[in-house]
Amino acid sequence: MDIDTVLADLGLAPGDLQAGALTVRSPIDGSVLARLAPHSAQGIDAALARAQAAFLRWRDMPAPRRGELVRLFGEELRANKTVLGRLVSMESGKILAEGEGEVQEMIDICDFAVGLSRQLHGLTIASERPGHRMMETWHPLGVVGVVSAFNFPVAVWAWNAALALVCGDALVWKPSDKTPLCALACRALFLRACARFGEVPEGLLEVVIGGREAAENLADDRRIALLSATGSCAMGRALAPRVAARLGRSLLELGGNNAIVVAPSADPDLAVRAILFSAVGTAGQRCTSARRLIVHASLRETLLVRLRKAYDSVRIGDPLDPETLMGPLIGRDAFDAMQAALAAARGEGGSVSGGERVLAERWPDAWYVRPALVDMPAQTDTVCRETFAPILYVLGYTELDQAIALHNAVPQGLSSAIFTNELREAERFLSAAGSDCGIVNVNIGTSGAEIGGAFGGEKDTGGGRESGSDAWRAYMRRATNTINYSTELPLAQGIRFGD
Ligand code: NAD
Fold it and tell me: How would you summarize the oligomeric state and partners of this protein (predicted)?
């Protein structure tokens, strides 16, 4: 199935996508997929105005009815899972199973949001005054701006969108300029759901094409009630102060530097499989990819031998081939960053296996690499940085508290895991004195979270939470209501005023 057929199946006219200045290339072979016209500042302004008008109507729709639209969108996703998953692979380079997995994640969050649409509940709180009642109500927030990264071109948007829509918000989505076709395809499927639903205000989902300036426009605009931004820590440092300058709200999902601790009692088979998927899956281009392995000194050599063997067996190649386990890097910049990190790690005493470019003769304009394992003498500056590529730094430890200290001594705080069969070790890692991450796992890897839990991380990862649990609250505003059903007017704290 070629790109034109994929786009046409998803309701996009390939001929309309060839006239603009933004060239979209497939990381699979460097071929041009589309040339899109980026939005001008005026175009973004108009999109925001439409979204704001849509919000004013959508917020009045009962939440369970809003859930019905999300249910219909989930149906469109189910019907188009294969083709949308293929587009995800073509545009982001992840293997087909992971492309389709992303669409499944969208379907799952739609299901979650449909249920949620009947459970947007607040508290009733005891009032200190006689004849009074206090309660909390949750109201739609406004227009939610979503800035998304290339590596999860559809799922992360859906985590935001499904919740925001049932919460009564409108959406303006600025996808990565590397994966805008996925966004246009999602919008086309969403419009199909809207047509079936019937009474959706125009502008409920706007897609804005562009790069950094487009994101800045959203950050600076007061009509964006919440900016949900996913990407690198550098992006968060650039955008968050702009939102803060207008005292707006932001929800940040930034970089990770995730580690797996392997304790002496670990099941080695489980550990090797989990490390391989976490470090090599999606070519190391997940925010939750394992980047550090903190392994007990007694296991270090044997685990490294097993991992090198497992790494050698990874089939690298065309992500559209079902036999492939690892596709390309997103582009040349990612390759250069990987090589620079490996050179720096060597300079810091690291011993590198893998990491070299492969398949260059077949695809001179694409960037395939062997995943790298780097045995490090210490947790150096290079290890403390997130390099968005398949590099796993291996560090040793002797006492668990030393492993936890190493684990926490990086700026990022997204995902973490321990492999152990010792209850005390597992519980210590999960405790207040354990991992400082937003995601802390036992005997599973760092990547591949389920939508039912809140997703996000601490420290430089930005502190935001999306997806399941009570993450929906970020997409609503809370009102505290006090109702006096007595004939008196008692003041709180017993204050007497003019009586
Ligand atoms: P990126 O930061 O380059 O781009 C992300 C988005 O921000 C894009 O839409 C881009 O156009 C925009 N952007 C980039 N720099 C900007 C700037 N200075 N000002 C305004 N907008 C800017 O990230 P990427 O390469 O697309 O994705 C990889 C990064 O995203 C990694 O750091 C990864 O860990 C992170 N990520 C985090 C999560 C999470 O949930 N925590 C999920 C996916 C990816």
Answer: Homotetramer.
Q: Which CATH superfamily groups domain 258-442? A: Aldehyde Dehydrogenase; Chain A, domain 2 (3.40.309.10)
pLDDT value for 15: 81
Question: How many helices (H) and strands (E) in the chain?
Answer: 15, 23
Which pLDDT score is estimated for 14?
Answer: 83
In angstroms, the CA 148 to CA 219 distance is 13
Is 90 near ligand 1, meaning CB less than 6 Å away? no
285 within ligand 1 shell (Cβ under 6 A): no
Q: What's the CATH code, domain 3-254+462-480?
A: 3.40.605.10
Q: What is the mean pLDDT of each run of 10 residues along the chain (499 residues)?
A: 94 88 97 96 98 98 98 98 98 98 98 98 96 98 98 98 98 98 98 97 98 98 98 98 98 98 98 98 98 98 97 97 98 98 98 98 98 98 98 98 98 98 98 98 96 98 98 98 97 89
Mutation probe of ligand 1 site: the residue of 176, 385, 458 with most atoms within 8 A of C-beta:
176
Give the residue extent of every domain in the chain. Answer: 3-254+462-480, 258-442
Q: 246-269 burial, b if ≥16 CB within 10 A, otherwise e?
A: eebbbbbbbbbbbbbbbbeebeee
Tell me which of 102, 206, 253, 386 is the catalytic residue: 253
CA angle 142, 147, 153 (to 5 degrees): 125
Give CA–CA dist 490/107, Å, rounded. 51
